[in-house]
Specification:
This protein is an alpha/beta fold and about 425 residues long. The chain folds into 4 domains: about 30-160, P-loop containing nucleotide triphosphate hydrolases (Rossmann fold, 3-Layer(aba) Sandwich); about 170-240, Helicase, Ruva Protein, domain 3 (Orthogonal Bundle), CATH 1.10.8.60; about 255-340, Zinc Finger, Delta Prime, domain 3 (Up-down Bundle), CATH 1.20.272.10; about 365-435, post-AAA+ oligomerization domain-like (Orthogonal Bundle). Helix content is about 50%, strand content about 10%. It has helices at about 15-20, 30-35, 40-45, 65-75, 90-105, 120-135, 145-150, 150-155, 170-180, 195-205, 210-220, 235-240, 255-265, 270-285, 290-305, 310-325, 330-340, 350-365, 425-435; strands at about 55, 75-80, 110-115, 135-140, 160, 190, 230. Helix 5 links the parallel strand 2 (about 75-80) and strand 3 (about 110-115).
């Protein structure tokens, strides 16, 4: 069935989110950053000169709805398919029909592909010639980052538009319109309290579909009072909506956004934010080993020598995970998160090792000085290996002035300790050695 064809459905059985779908840009709510007055995409749709686009964003923010608006606006032939049910043969047929339609009738074809990320590489390649030659104008809708999921060749021929979660104001506007509209809930004589509406919009998390589905369920399951009014209060709204849905796809773009926020919170010394993002991952079923691996990396990268114990804490969290498992391991993992977030910060380790690697890459392998070469194997002494080496433990303070670098790199210095935490002591010690 066509995604936008409601003629075969009884109107009363159509979900509220579908019944309230706008038919024009004037009715469309949200996405002002790309559809506001004067914006390029709005002009292209209004003037029916749209080129291929990819609509990218989380569920319920208006991707399919925008496709429907375009279908009501264009004079061309508008075709919709879902990537979950179509195949290469059907796409080839559609491309051929579009080519003939353009050649013989001068008519354009717009193809809306829902969940385009589910098309495999071969199926996407089928569309490429038709899009490139202008036989098809493609509108792809996806919840996943298209730069990960859509062929580069197809991306290069399309404009990417990212849709954002709807604001609270947008959601309230949609809810009130649905409550007043005859095609929505206007005939049911219902009253939704401000507290109930605030709850429904808050837990929708910017998803219009979730909001409207919960609103409809709350209204339909509420009996009219003596005055014939269906009053939806906070208790009914909470029961209808149940627990808040956490949007998180372990293999998708949101996964990378959440872990990025987690890492930046650790680096920014905000334990509360770090624990929040950790809780988001736990609640969504993220592999806790993934979290611990990030702790190991950032204990060294962001704390480093300012507090070397941070790395041990991350290691201990991994050990606890293997021995305890979840949910018990959530506690030592959280302890490591708090420790790393609140520890003094220094990225001198990263700077040092990257500089050393760059030096080797640029200059190649310099010969090892004779006095530093291995002298333990047979014949090494005859070659002079180890000759002149000074054993530091034989000297006061277990230190002796000695060259440990190739002759061409005598001035090579990449480790520059900060003044944070323990590294302040290391800095003073190194400065003493280097002066000598």
């Amino acid at each position: 069935m066509d995604l936008f064809d409601l003629s075969s459905l009884r109107q009363e059985n159509v979900p509220l989110a579908v019944r309230m779908r706008p038919e024009s840009l004037a009715e469309y709510v949200g996405q002002e950053h790309i559809l506001g007055e004067g914006k390029l995409l709005r002009r292209a749709i209004s003037q029916d000169i749209l080129r291929s686009i990819i609509l990218y964003g989380p569920p319920g923010v208006g991707k399919t709805t925008l496709g429907y608006v375009i279908s009501q606006t264009t004079k061309g032939v508008f075709i919709t398919v879902s990537a979950t049910t179509t195949g290469a043969a059907e796409l080839k047929k559609l491309a051929a029909e579009a080519r003939d339609r353009r050649a013989f009738h001068g008519q354009r074809t717009i193809l809306f592909v829902d969940e385009i990320q589910r098309l495999n590489k071969g199926q996407q390649d089928v569309l490429l010639p038709a899009v490139e030659q202008g036989d098809l104008t493609l509108i792809g809708a996806t919840t996943e980052n298209p730069y990960f999921e859509v062929n580069a060749a197809l991306l290069s021929r399309s404009q990417i538009y990212r849709l954002q979660p709807l604001s609270t104001q947008d959601l309230v506007r949609l809810a009130r319109h649905a409550l007043e509209s005859p095609k929505g809930l206007g005939d049911l004589n219902c009253l939704v309290t401000d507290e109930a509406l605030e709850h429904l919009t808050r837990i929708a998390s910017g998803d219009a579909r979730v909001l409207l589905n919960n609103l409809e369920f709350a209204v339909l399951t509420t009996l009219p009072n003596e005055e014939g009014i269906r009053v939806v209060d906070l208790a009914i709204a909470e029961e209808a909506a149940q627990a808040q849905r956490v949007r998180y796809d372990k293999s998708g773009d949101n996964h990378y956004d959440v872990i990025s926020a987690f890492i930046k919170s650790l680096r920014g010394s905000d334990p509360d934010a770090a624990l929040y993002w950790y809780a988001r991952m736990v609640y969504a079923g993220e592999d806790p080993r993934f979290v611990v691996r990030r702790l190991l990396v950032h204990a060294a990268e962001d704390v480093g020598m300012a507090d070397p114990t941070a790395l041990l804490m991350a290691q201990a969290a991994g050990f606890a995970l293997e021995w305890l498992g979840m949910p018990e391991a959530r506690i030592p993992i959280a302890q490591a998160i708090i420790y790393i977030a609140t520890a003094p910060k220094s990225n001198s380790v990263v700077t040092a090792v990257d500089a050393a690697l760059a030096q080797v890459e640029q200059r190649g392998a310099e010969p090892v000085p004779i006095h530093l070469r291995d002298s333990h194997y047979a014949g090494a002494g005859k070659l002079g290996h180890g000759k002149g080496y000074k054993y530091p433990h034989d000297y006061p303070h277990h230190y002796v002035v000695q060259d440990y670098l190739p002759e061409n790199l005598r001035d090579f210095q990449v480790y520059s300790p900060s003044t944070q935490g323990r590294e302040k002591i290391i800095k003073e010690r190194l400065e003493y050695f280097r002066k000598r």
